[in-house]
User: What shape does this take?
Amino acid sequence: MKDGDVDYDNYEEADEETQKQLEKEYADAEKKGWVQGKPGSFLNKLIQHGNRKTEEELAKSESGKS
Assistant: This one.
């Protein structure tokens, strides 16, 4: 999976190579204490995307409560 072709919302379709790379990045991040993965890594981008989507959903639900 090339960085420009990434569909962060469709993570279930990641190929085996991508999954192995994420596992490696996760292990490296854990060893080095990077909570959100190595800055700039694919893992880091996935986490940032998920965080952004969560923040958007929370903001949307908060605005609906008013």
